[in-house]
From TrEMBL, chain A:
Pfam families assigned: FeoB_C, FeoB_N, Gate
Topology versus the membrane: Multi-pass membrane protein
Compartment list: Cell inner membrane
Gene Ontology molecular function: ferrous iron transmembrane transporter activity; GTP binding
UniProt protein name: Fe(2+) transporter FeoB
Organism of this sequence: Sphingomonas mucosissima
From TrEMBL, chain B:
Entry protein name: FeoA domain protein
Keyword Coiled coil on entry: no
Domain Ferrous iron transporter FeoA-like residue range list: 7-83
Keyword field: Iron
Signal peptide positions (record): none
Lineage: superkingdom: Bacteria
InterPro entries assigned: Fe-transptr_FeoA-like (IPR007167), FeoA_core_dom (IPR038157), Transcriptional_repressor_C (IPR008988)
Coiled-coil intervals, chain numbering: none
Record has Iron as a keyword: yes
Alphabetized GO MF terms: transition metal ion binding
Matches recorded under SMART domains: FeoA
Length: 618, 84
């Protein structure tokens, strides 16, 4: 097998590296992991002008060769050829933000000093121009002694010129003497001065504008308005999750009902048909129906991230996070955890302080992830009346917001306690670049959404399909004698009776005890598990198909429903979360600790909720 | 004419350009000091305070070069500036 020349994209954070990587490789990319560390490796293929393919790898953004977090360490090690599982790159594409030359050139100078062939991509020149800055790529190239190509990655401008420059660089790459392993380091202040001189030489004209950016920040970071905007955005987000999803949910339900009917019509009655309709279709359908809500939530988070607002939210939240011993930086992983704790926990890698990072990982599962939405939605739909408490504000949406807030409050308390005990240490502070606001690009959001949707559908088709079938089998055997409940007689029913003893004090009934175990595989299975239980039980019922909601209303009391909701605010996380925590913390100690404390919190809080609700006469 | 009195960056009026007179590197944690240098903070650079999260003395946002950087108050207090 021939080894392709390796081209690495490298640069400061916020230089538009990933956008350039997307523009150059399109859909032909692969996401992997560097061995030993949990830093994602993004690579793709690119054809040069002469048709020769090269491998392009997108290195994590960093400010210098002096790493202060695990992903910055990877960048440095790759550049020095010390990273396990990665060759030393043949050519570097140094991506610099045209509007931020002073700073980005300093790192570029360090990179050029490494001695590898370099092409500089002077990125986001359009934003720089709008910012009142005109630059000369020729002058910059003269000063740096390497080719400089102006690009606008998000508009795919300058890519052909960049590819041509790369072709030349790759051709020349073998001819140069291999660079020294680690060149002598110049003091940062000296490099910075040189960078500033070069930036000045490359600047044709400069007017300080940036007016609209500052105007937006005046509102977004305003001491009073800022938090109001943040809360309002969050509220709109959660309302949208409910109201926008109604129609598409109807379509999916209709689709599954049609498939169910077709199977019932085509197959003779029997065990196999029961497995397909009551097990597979009921189970997978109950979960897939939530795809629209999960996508709406992800869309909001992707837009907030791409627009640059997320960092403003971190700014606003820093004071509050400092109060519980964290920093505003933890806000971004925590907000991502609202979509899913797995990417959220992986996003903690940008937190340089070890204890800060560990605390953030431990509380991330308390952020209500999208997999809990199906559980919340169905219980809220069954027990909370659909009426509006104010124009445009539904009671159901309000309860949902309350559940999210309960998770956040729980996380803050947990962080506070953890920082005083197991992760005791000094706070690492908060220092962050605030990138300019940008209009999010529809295609970037679409790519992000598509990959999330695919992961969810794949989960529904594998883990969830498998667990529902296993559950169906456990529920269907041994067959109950005439006149007895099939569920109570089954293996699963007997296991649940054991669990029920433990969860009865907090108001949980037999059905819930049954759903708790498979919910460990994936939380949304709780819904399909309950759906399967009722489907199997209803099979003997002459009335037949009741909806899950009707069944819930018939069998659960309101305090039980509320306790169940509260259980899922704190509920022990799914297996994927435990696995990613083990990977990120390099051992079983912290994931086990996490599972333990979350179980305890879930049990206590669900119990309190149940007894308060009973006492209130609900 | 008297030279303008130096004051901590934290107390600089908003949107007033100033020059960094001194940074008390010793008062900063090592990683903090390094990141501050990487962002281009050093004596002689121009800075401008853009926003203050006044609620419970939250962080400040300031411009250095063409970049906006968020800092906590204790860091901003370690940077002494003179108004241009």
């Amino acid at each position: 097998m021939s080894i392709l020349p390796l081209v690495a994209l490298v640069g400061n954070p916020n230089a538009g590296k990933s956008a350039l990587f997307n523009a150059l490789t399109g859909a032909r990319q692969k996401v992997g992991n560097y061995p030993g560390v949990t830093v994602e490796r993004h690579s793709g293929r690119l054809s040069l002008d002469d048709g020769r393919p090269v491998e392009l790898v997108d290195l994590p953004g960093t400010y210098s060769l002096d790493p202060s977090s695990p992903d910055e360490q990877v960048t440095r090690d790759v550049l020095f050829g010390r990273q396990v599982g990665e060759r030393r790159p043949d050519v570097l594409v140094v991506v610099v933000d045209a509007a931020n030359l002073d700073l980005h050139l300093r790192f570029a100078l360090q990179l050029i000093a490494l001695g590898l062939p370099v092409v500089v991509a002077l990125n986001m020149v359009d934003l720089a121009e709008r910012d009142g800055l005109t630059l000369s790529a020729e002058a910059l190239s003269r000063e740096l002694g390497v080719p400089v190509v102006p690009t606008v990655a998000v508009r795919k401008r300058g890519l052909d010129v960049l590819r041509a420059a790369l072709t030349t660089a790759v051709e020349g790459s073998g001819k140069q003497a291999p660079a020294a392993d680690a060149p002598e380091e110049q003091p940062i202040a000296q490099l910075q001065r040189r960078a500033r001189e070069i930036a000045r030489a490359a600047t044709v004209s400069e007017t300080p504008t940036r007016r609209w950016n500052h105007a937006l920040d005046t509102i977004a970071l305003h001491p009073m308005l800022g938090p109001i905007v943040l809360v309002a955005l969050m509220f709109v987000m959660f309302q949208a999750v409910f109201s926008w999803s109604e129609a598409p949910i109807g379509w999916i339900e209709g689709g599954f009902a049609a498939v169910d009917e077709a199977v019932r019509g085509a197959m003779p009655e029997g065990l196999l048909r029961s497995m397909i309709t009551d097990g597979l279709i009921a189970g997978v359908g109950a979960v897939l129906v939530f795809l629209p809500q999960i996508l709406i939530l992800f869309a909001f988070i992707l837009v907030l991230e791409a627009s640059g607002y997320m960092v403003r939210a971190a700014f606003l939240m820093d004071r509050m996070m400092a109060g519980v011993g964290l920093s505003g930086r933890a806000f971004i992983p925590l907000l991502s955890s609202f979509a899913c704790a797995v990417p959220g926990i992986m996003a903690t890698r940008t937190i340089s302080d070890e204890k800060d990072r560990l605390t953030t990982i431990l509380i991330a599962p308390l952020m209500t992830c999208s997999a809990r939405l199906p559980v919340y939605t169905i219980i809220i739909g069954a027990f909370i009346p659909d009426r509006s408490v104010a124009p445009g504000v539904g009671l159901q949406g309000l309860v949902l917001l309350g559940l999210y807030l309960a998770g956040i409050a729980g996380a803050f308390v947990a962080a506070l306690v953890l920082r005083q005990t197991v992760t005791k240490g000094d706070s690492s502070g908060f220092m962050m670049e605030m990138p300019r606001y940008q209009m999010p690009r529809l295609s970037d959001i679409a790519i992000g959404l598509w990959s999330r949707a695919w992961i969810f559908v794949k989960r529904a088709g594998t883990i969830i399909a498998l667990t529902t079938i296993v559950l169906w089998a456990l529920l269907s055997f041994p067959r109950a004698p005439e006149g007895q409940s099939q569920v109570d007689h089954s293996i699963a029913g007997r296991i649940a009776s054991g669990i029920e003893v433990v969860v009865k004090p907090i108001g949980f009934n037999h059905d819930i005890a049954l759903a708790l175990l498979p919910a460990m595989a994936a939380r949304e299975v709780a819904v399909s598990a309950i759906g399967t239980v009722y489907a199997v039980d209803d099979a003997e019922d002459a009335a037949g198909a009741r909806t899950i909601v009707e069944n819930l209303q018939r069998r659960w009391s309101l305090p039980t429903a509320l306790a169940f909701l509260m259980w899922f605010v704190f509920a022990p996380q799914c297996i994927s979360t435990i696995a990613v925590t083990r990977r990120e913390t390099n051992g079983w100690k912290w994931p086990l600790f996490m599972v333990g404390y979350l179980f305890a919190a879930a049990y206590i809080m669900a119990g309190i909720t149940y007894w308060l609700a009973v006492a209130a006469g609900l | 004419m008297l030279a303008p009195a130096p004051l901590p960056l934290e107390s600089l009026p908003l949107r007033r350009r100033a020059t960094i007179a001194e940074i008390a590197w010793g008062r900063l944690a090592l990683p903090e000091a390094r990141r501050l240098r990487e962002f281009g903070f050093e004596e002689g650079m121009h800075v401008e305070l853009l926003h203050r999260a006044t609620l419970f003395r939250g962080p400040v946002a300031c411009r250095i070069g063409r970049m906006t950087v968020a800092l906590r108050r204790n860091v901003a207090a370690a940077i002494t500036v003179t108004v241009d």
